[in-house]
Amino acid sequence: MTPLLKVQDLRVAYSDRMGELCPALAGVNFDLGPGEILGVVGESGSGKSTLAAALLRLLPSNGRIQQGTVFFEGKNLLDVSPQDLRKIRGGRIGLIFQEPSSSLHPTMQVGRQVSDVLAAHESFDRRTLGEKTSQLLATVFPVDAARISGSYPHELSGGQRQRVLIVQAIACGPSLVIADEPTASLDPTTQQEILQLFQTLRQKLGLAIILITHNPALLVGLADRLLVLYAGRIAEIGPTAPVLTAPQHPYTAALLRCLPSHFAESQGSRKARLQVIPGDPPDLSLRAQGCQFEPRCALRMEVCKSDEPKAATVGERHEVFCFKFPS
Amino acid sequence: MQPLLRVENLVKHYAAGRSAPSKDKFAALDGVSLSIPARTTLALIGESGSGKSTLALCIACLEHPTSGSIWFEGIDVAALDENQQRLLRPQIQLVFQDPASSLNPRWTALEIVSEPFFVQGRFSKQERSDKAGTWLDRVGISRKMVSRRADELSGGQKQRLAIARALALEPKLIILDEALSALDCSVQAQISNLLLELQSSLGLTYLFITHDSAMAAQLADQIAVMDHGRTVESGPAEKILSSPGHGATRSLLAATPRVPETHSVLVDS
Predict the structure, then answer these.
(1) How does strand B222-227 pair with strand B230-236?
(2) Are the C-beta atoms of B205 and B174 separated by less than 8 Å?
(3) pTM as predicted
(4) What is the pLDDT of residues A190-206, one digit of tens each?
(5) Rounded-to-integer distance, Cα B75 and Cα A52, Å
């Protein structure tokens, strides 16, 4: 099967105020099949949002893609002309950001904001545009699409606004949607509804989805595979169930053990201290060599200080970047 | 035992929209009752818009309730005038969800924690900064970081700073309004541990507002559930979690995402 997206050796750095380069992504490789959902898990500063932005060349002005290729539907996105890129953004790849309230125009009805996306990619007469917009809104608002269409963002709830962003992202029939923390500001019930909607869209439209989050629990039962990022590098990538229930990389394991365990299993441990990862989060400007997790790792070895670990296969499509495993 | 805080039948109405006639009211709180014994934690859970944060603002004397009473150490807070409330406020402090927007980014950590003393007119300048330094140290912000500006700190450090500011006036009650929600899991664990440690050593009482029932289970002695401006269920945490009685509680518990039990061969060795 040809992958829909193939990312090879992607390296991104930001220049700070002194002009020094800080690496944010240091050699990321992965691929994504059509209709596949990949969850990207990482903490603040791990490079997960940089990854989303770099794939579509949307980095802020101090960010630079230093190396790598991003093959999508046969084109290297890092090479294509600005005109082609504009067609791909929003056309073939939809993007959904975290904050639904700041991604929508506050004084424009949301129906108009959806039809603008359509009009930017194809020319329709006014009536067709209106019909297409209503059809699109009806896919995520089965009950009151017409009312929503005439509403302003402030008249909608957080969950409804997030649905409007999803409509915008799928408006032109993309094959891939990149969603950066799409549910971070929502309460759990709404969060589940939005995640369910992603699942439905994947089934109905065959969408591939890259879902970026800091909360691994959201990806249970949704993502096919997980990619765990730490300090701009992949720590572990593999099918969701084995990564979550039998994590192989010391960082993945430590991260999962920080979560408060489910109360049904742990009635005795209420108000007990949670496990933490010792040490500080990585300072990207400092550490040039060795494994990035080495200073905080309970299982560190001599080699971890000096060399960077390579991919070791530990199961089907399951790779770990750690010297504990023979590569 | 006398509870530290007892809320009775609290009602808060807001005007419903600018074009609506003034008699149209929206009841953000529609008869809320709860009580928190001293030195314990009550977790208040509920969906967005259920009235959790409105309740927090009323208890902290930042909103005036329409009716009902808030008894704090035997005083009805809701009946106090502005001057009396100012004397009471140091006893009740707040920590908000997003530390980035609740701290002045251009102030240093030391200035931020000294400010409550300044507002209350306590101590000399030197004493203020000494005391602020002590509190910062207490929450795990080291001496060499106290002169950093808030915007130079990480999310976890900012939330530690917000906790130090809340502690500065030695309150009895701290309202944690989604104080862990914006943090990464590993940082959440650290801050949760810090809150537990501070509670046992300083005898603090927490009102922990959250929509994360797993964190509520972790921190709370008691849980109260809000739905559409009412408390629909409350009781000991174990009981609410193991046999939720109200539909709103059940749907909240079911919606909390969780990772299945982890079996790590590698790290347990």
Answers:
(1) antiparallel
(2) yes
(3) 0.88
(4) 999 999 999 999 999 99
(5) 53
